[in-house]
Specification:
Elements (H helix, E strand, L loop, with lengths): L3 H8 L5 E6 L4 H12 L3 E6 L2 H10 L11 E4 L2 E4 L4 H10 L3 E5 L19 E7 L4 E7 L3
Parallel strand pairs: 1-2, 4-5
Antiparallel strand pairs: 1-3, 3-4, 5-6, 6-7
């Protein structure tokens, strides 16, 4: 029992595991994953592309207008696209009754999509269970 105590101390406060479905050839997805890992998340990946990846998105409540290049699951929430770490942490802290978060498309300067110092304005959307979305966070152009 004492031997388990140090392990418990190490895992307390640790970031949860996030599972990412992505095209194995996509560099921006890999860049986003690297950001998550650098922020302390444990990331698992699964290769998927084309129709299979789109079906996964739709089957898990991501509306077509919110689609990006990769899709992740963390603690029963879906994360679509280049969502910043701060927004993922806020989602997990606030725990809204929702599908998850989405950054549609691939906005330049979002995490994994180029330097933040040159980013274009973009929004992170909360995807509701009925398929509607609402603003979660807005990022101004740099």
């Amino acid at each position: 029992m004492l031997a388990a105590s140090p392990l418990m101390a190490l895992t307390q406060g640790a970031e949860p595991t996030i599972h990412v479905m992505k095209d194995p050839n996509c560099g921006c997805c890999t860049a986003w994953i690297n950001i998550l890992e650098n922020e302390g998340f444990t990331v698992t990946t699964e290769p998927s592309a084309g129709t299979l990846l789109m079906r996964y998105k739709m089957d898990n409540g991501i509306p077509q207008e919110m689609v990006s290049c990769h899709t992740a699951r963390i603690e029963n929430y879906m994360i679509e696209g280049h969502v910043p770490v701060a927004d993922i942490r806020r989602l997990l802290e606030e725990r809204p009754d929702a599908v998850g978060l989405a950054v549609p498309g691939m906005p330049y300067g979002s995490p994994g999509m180029g330097p933040e110092s040159e980013r274009e304005a973009y929004a992170v959307h909360l995807v509701n269970r009925d398929g509607t979305t609402e603003p979660f966070t807005n990022y101004q152009a740099a």
